[in-house]
Structures are given as structure tokens and as C-alpha cells.
């Protein structure tokens, strides 16, 4: 039996155990074998979890490039093909430069997370919500306009301990989801320790709401596939919430829209 179970583990079957009977040397050997098998199983589970997280982050990295790259291409085509005033040329070039810089920083952070088995604590710097909004306003409004939607911002003077690049990713993902859901109005609001994104899109059915943060899950597979969505946006938002020690809350009603709240820990910042 011991030989058979050892062979099973060697072939990749890690859940095999030996029934321990008595208190002789064979029983002690069987108990030791079981302890070893359990240790191997824990290590395999840990490696599997790490592999899944890396798969998520790699997929998310590709997903993250889509919205800003579309805007960058649009602005670069305007520079190449449209007669612009000097002021417009400067604005377009400034936007392209800023977005390229943000994407470079975000890519480096995502790759750093991918390279570590358990993730990495990010550097959280107390910053005003207005700084976060300034990072994403042009990108969000430009992306929304292409989908015949509008984006509004409301800030009560809130401050959060956050990584600006990762939180910009949160807002871009949530706005992208809203546009994919057919929203025509997207509202971003910062008040006290809550950052809220609300839309008037098609909403999420109650029976799948608890699953929307799972990697690669898509509430409407046909629409998501047609628009090139892999179901990674909310999974990444959930991961970023964890890195900030924040709570992610999602309320939705079919036919009325969705509200996502990013609730930071209560603290003086």
C-alpha cells in the first residue's frame, strides 16, 4: 500500500493517503508518509493558486492597455491627419505623453505583482481625490463619448491613501464596464472614505451578482465576447481593493443600472 501511494504521488495524484492502523513501526511510517503527502498537497495548492493569479494579472495587463491605447491612437491620428491649432497640437501631444507614462508605470507595477508569489504590498500615498480624477478625466470622457455616453465627477474634498496608477485603473475599468452595459450616464463621486461609480446601464442579474469579480466571468457572454471583453475588469478591481485594504461593494438592478463602491479603511489622511 505504501509503495502504491508513493507511486501515485510520483505520477501526480497528490490526494492519496494511507490508513494508519496500530502503533508499530509500519504505522509510524504510514503516518509520516501521510504528513509528507499533506505537505506536498499544500505546496501544490499554493503553486496552483499562484499560477492562477499570474494568469489573471497577465490577462488583466492586456485588458488594461485597451482603453488608453485607443485614445492614444485617436489623438495621434488627429495629429497626423487633421489640421489643428498650435494649442490643440500641444494638448494632443501632452495627452499622449501623459498616458504613455501612466501605462509604463502601470505595466511595471503589474509585472511586479506577477513576479511575486503572494503579491506585493503597494505604496499607499495620501492623495486628494481631485488628483485621481485629473489622472483619468480625459481618458474616461473620451472613451465614453465614443460610446455616446457622458461622465461626471463630484468631489467633496475627499482624500485617500492610495496608489494613483492602480486607482486610475479601477476607474477606467468601472467606466469601461458601464459603457459595455449600454450606459449613457456615468457618475464618479468621492465622499469621505467612499469612491463610487454609478451608471444607468442594463444592470446585472441578481443570480450572478456574487460571481462578477471572478476572473474571466462574464454576465452577458455574447455581448462581452463581441466587444472583446475577457471578464477581467472587476476581478482586477477586486484585487486592487485587497491591496488597498478596501472593501468592494456592488449593487445592481436589471434595467436600472449598477453602483460600485470602493470603501477605503477609515483613517486620517
Automatic annotation (TrEMBL):
Reaction(s) the record says it catalyses: ATP + protein L-histidine = ADP + protein N-phospho-L-histidine
UniProt entry keywords in alphabetical sequence: ATP-binding, Cell membrane, Kinase, Membrane, Nucleotide-binding, Phosphoprotein, Transferase, Transmembrane, Transmembrane helix, Two-component regulatory system
SUPFAM superfamilies according to UniProt: ATPase domain of HSP90 chaperone/DNA topoisomerase II/histidine kinase, HAMP domain-like, Homodimeric domain of signal transducing histidine kinase
Enzyme Commission identifier(s): 2.7.13.3
CDD domains assigned: HAMP (cd06225), HATPase (cd00075), HisKA (cd00082)
Subcellular location: Cell membrane
Protein known as: histidine kinase
Species: bioreactor metagenome
Gene: sasA_313
